C-alpha cells in the first residue's frame, strides 16, 4: 500500500484527493495546512486518517511515501525540498517552482536521493493528449516537428479565482515574478517543451495589460502574452496567452514534414491534417468528408458527459466531429471521462514509477526547460514595462 500525504488544503487539493481515491493500492494517510481549520475540513470531507498543522509532524507521524504539494508556488521549493530530504517522493502542483534555479536544485536533490519527482502538468495526460502523443511517436508527422502553436486562454470574467485576484491587492499571485501568467502558462509551455530538442531555445516575448483590466484600474497584471520560441535551424513555436480572445481556447497544433495534428483540450478532440492535396476540385470535397469522420468521433466521445461545453460545440460543427465523438463515447462507457482524468493518469503513472523504480512520466529535462522559458519570458516583460509590486501579505 502506497501511503500518500497532501500539503495544502485549498481548491486544487480537492482534485488531487478525488483522483488519488480513484486509484487502487494507495491511501491518503495525512493532510497538512498551516491553517488548522482548512486541514480539519479537508480531513472530514475526504475521510483522511489524520490531519496536521505541523509539516514535521505529518512526515514523522504519518510517514508518507509520497507527498503532494498543493500550496501557493512561492512555498513549493521549500516544502518539496523538506520532503525530499526526509525520504519522500514528491508531486508538485504547477508551476513547479518560482524559477529554474529552484527547479534545478530539486531535480538534483531527488536524483541524489534516488527519489521521484514530478509536476502537475496533467493536461499533457488527458485522453486526447495521449492519443496525440501516440500518433507523433508512431511517425504520423513524418519526422520531428517543424512548427508548433500553443494557445492557452483564461476567462477573467468567469473564473472565481480570477475575480478574487483582481479584488485582492494582497493576493499571493501578485507577488510572483510573472503574477497571473506565472500561475497559469506552464500548462501551455509544457506542451511545447515536450517536443523541443534544444535545452536553450531562443525566446522572444511581448506582453501587455488588456484594455479590460485597464478599465478596472489594474496596471500590474499582464493578461495578454505572445511568445516566439525557436531552436536554431529546427523547430519553431508560437505561444499565446489571452484573457480576451473569444472563444477562450486551449489548443495545441503541431506540424511535421508530412502531416499535422490539432488538439482541442476543451472539446477533447484531435484532428489529423493530411499531408498532400487531391487533384483539381477533389480538394474541395474529399477533405471535408475526412474531417467529418474525425469530428464525429470527437462528438460521440463527448456526448457521454454531462458537461454541455464538452459536446455542444462539436454538435454545431458536427460535420467535423464524427470520429472524435465515437472515441469519446467509448471512453465514457469505460467510466473514465472526468474533468481531471489527465490528473488521474499522471498520478497513477507517477506512483507506478515509484513502485517499479521506472522513469517518471514527465522527464526532468522538460520540467527544467519549461521553467527556463518562463524565466526568459518574465525577464523580458520586466524590462519592457514598469513593475508595480503589490504589498506583501502579512
Structure description:
With 394 residues, the chain is an alpha/beta fold. It has 2 domains: 2-119, NAD(P)-binding Rossmann-like Domain (Rossmann fold), CATH 3.40.50; 125-340 and 375-379, Dihydrodipicolinate Reductase, domain 2 (2-Layer Sandwich). It has helices at 11-20, 36-45, 55-62, 76-85, 100-113, 127-137, 160-167, 179-184, 186-193, 211-215, 282-303, 308-316, 322-333, 341-355, 364-384; strands at 2-7, 26-32, 51-52, 66-69, 89-92, 117-119, 147-153, 202-208, 224-230, 236-242, 250-255, 260-264, 269-273. The chain has a 7-stranded mixed β-sheet. Strands 3-2-1-4-5-6 form a 6-stranded parallel β-sheet, with helices on both faces. Helix 5 (100-113) packs antiparallel against helix 15 (364-384), helix 9 packs across helix 15 and helix 11 packs antiparallel against helix 12. It is globular and about 75 Å long. The model is unreliable at 312-317 and 386-394 (pLDDT under 50).
Topology:
Elements (H helix, E strand, L loop, with lengths): L1 E6 L3 H10 L5 E7 L3 H10 L5 E2 L2 H8 L3 E4 L6 H10 L3 E4 L7 H14 L3 E3 L7 H11 L9 E7 L6 H8 L11 H6 L1 H8 L8 E7 L2 H5 L8 E7 L5 E7 L7 E6 L4 E5 L4 E5 L8 H22 L4 H9 L5 H12 L7 H15 L8 H21 L10
Parallel strand pairs: 1-2, 1-4, 2-3, 4-5, 5-6, 7-10
Antiparallel strand pairs: 7-11, 8-9, 9-10, 11-12, 12-13
Helix pairs in contact: 1-14, 4-5, 5-15, 9-15, 11-12, 11-13
Query: Structural class of the secondary elements?
Result: alpha/beta
Q: Strand-and-helix sequence, N→C?
A: EHEHEHEHEHEHEHHHEHEEEEEHHHHH
Order of strands across the biggest sheet? Answer: 8-9-10-7-11-12-13
Q: Termini distance?
A: 40 Å
Would you tell me the overall average pLDDT?
A: 88
Q: Give the C-level CATH assignment of the largest domain.
A: Alpha Beta
